[in-house]
Amino acid sequence: MEIEEISRKLINNDYNQLKEVHHDKMVLETRRTALKNKIQLHHLSEHVKTIENSLEELKNQNKTLYENNSILIDIIKEICKDKINPSLQEKIKTIQA
């Protein structure tokens, strides 16, 4: 009887240790996943900043191009005054819109 009880205690102890090891493994895997997610989030936020900076630069370039086009249109109008044919005048109006 005593041997059976000792054997049962050993089995219970092994089972409890196995449960603890499994729990520790799950905790470590969760921490690992959280760290991977944090690293990915950091990389993603760096990419977002780069994209935002590029977008801002493109907006500025677009604004400059728009202003330059407006100036060029005004210059062409002044140079050509009454010499512009009607279809070209329509194209200029379309570009300005």
Report on this model:
Residues 41-68 form a coiled coil. Keywords: Coiled coil. The protein has helices at 2-80, 86-96. It is an all-alpha fold. It has one domain (2-96). The model has no long low-confidence stretch (mean pLDDT 88). It is built from two helices and no strands. The termini are far apart.
In short:
This protein has one domain (about 1-95). About 95% of the residues lie in helices and about 0% in strands. It contains 2 helices and no strands.
What labels describe this entry?
97 residues; mainly alpha; rod-shaped
Span of the ends, CA to CA: 99 Å
Give the overall shape, derived from the CA principal axes: rod-shaped
H-E order:
HH
Number of strands: 0
**Integer average pLDDT:** 88
Q: Which secondary-structure class do the elements indicate? A: mainly alpha
How many DSSP H or I helices? 2
Helix content: over 70%
Count of separate structural domains: 1
For the sheet with most strands, the description reads:
none
Q: What Rg, in angstroms, do the CA atoms define?
A: 37 Å
Share in β-strands = under 5%
Low-confidence stretches: none
